[in-house]
UniProtKB/TrEMBL annotation:
Residue ranges annotated for the Calcineurin-like phosphoesterase domain, each copy included: 54-226
Organism encoding this protein: Rufibacter latericius
Lineage: superkingdom: Bacteria
Signal peptide residue numbers: none
InterPro entries: Calcineurin-like_PHP (IPR004843), Metallo-depent_PP-like (IPR029052), STPP_CPPED1 (IPR051918)
Pfam family, one: Metallophos
Record-given protein name: Metallophosphoesterase
GO molecular-function term, one example from the UniProt record: hydrolase activity
Length: 268
């Protein structure tokens, strides 16, 4: 018992330093306000009235570019009447939970809700579990006004090109029109575009055909390539728009109306 006074300061030091050190790079230690962010932001979006024209900011590939992400948030907050922000994936670089937390610490200063799609770097190590706990499902959809948004995992290489990523059965079902649907169009959001070498080549054309056959998709949004491109790759009416990385200080300003849209490249 005489040693207790000498042990107490040591024990208190251990407790106070608990939040300062990572015991292992793959550990997951999220705070309560860092969990289920997709559901929380969808709730925020659902409380907003959707106008005839939706206004979105689309960015991505934050990885280790923290200063540039801070500047993105500053630029984004200078806009008015934005419905929400889309992060196109590669939130992290090495898939460590601290990287996800650092980016969220920056992004939470946005005036607008933000949603994410998983990138290939967000599947490294233990990152898939981090993403699922911090954000939620890898594939999800929601309807906002006249538009259905479909977010899905297209990181085929990270699954060994197993023929199941992206999940085309799920995608086709989500794009299937139903008589009681309130949406007239759909926008697909994923990290890797179908014409990239990290996309499962065996699923490239089937992916495009699912979008085309739905009759509802005219725009598909992507990141990953750290540069801009915007083209009807397969010579039809579906535009595949790739947004550059924040490292290059760019993002997309997207306006969406019933059966139409406009994309604008923004530098900051």
């Amino acid at each position: 018992m005489k040693r207790l006074p000498f042990l107490l300061p040591f024990l208190m030091l251990l407790v106070s330093c608990e939040e300062l050190f990572e015991y292992h790079p793959n550990q997951i230690r999220l705070k309560s306000d860092e969990k289920n962010l997709t559901a929380l932001n969808l709730q925020r979006i659902a409380r907003q009235p959707a106008g005839d024209t939706l206004r979105l900011l689309v960015m991505g590939d934050t990885q280790r570019f923290y200063d540039e992400t801070v500047d993105f948030v500053r630029a984004a907050n200078s806009f008015s009447d934005i419905d929400f922000v889309i992060h196109l994936g590669d939130i992290s670089d090495f898939g460590m939970s601290k990287e996800f937390q650092w980016v969220h610490d920056i992004m939470k200063d946005l005036r607008w809700p933000y949603l994410t799609v998983i990138g290939n770097h967000d599947l490294l190590g233990n990152a898939r579990k981090v993403y699922q706990q911090m954000f939620g499902a890898l594939n999800y959809t929601f309807v906002y006004g006249h538009t259905k948004f479909v977010f899905l995992d297209t990181n085929g290489r990270e699954y060994g090109f197993n023929g199941h990523i992206p999940d085309l059965d799920w995608l086709a079902e989500e794009l299937r029109p139903e008589a009681d649907e309130t949406w007239s169009q759909a926008i697909v959001v994923s990290h890797i575009p179908p014409f990239d070498s990290d996309f499962d080549a065996a699923l490239e054309m089937p992916f495009h055909e699912v979008l085309s056959n739905s009759g509802k998709v005219s725009l598909s949004l992507h990141g990953h390539r750290h540069g801009w491109s915007s083209e009807t790759t397969y010579d039809d009416d579906i535009l595949y728009h790739v947004t550059t990385t924040v490292k290059k200080r760019g993002f997309t300003y997207l306006k969406v109306w019933d059966r139409g849209y406009a994309v604008e490249q923004i530098s900051y």
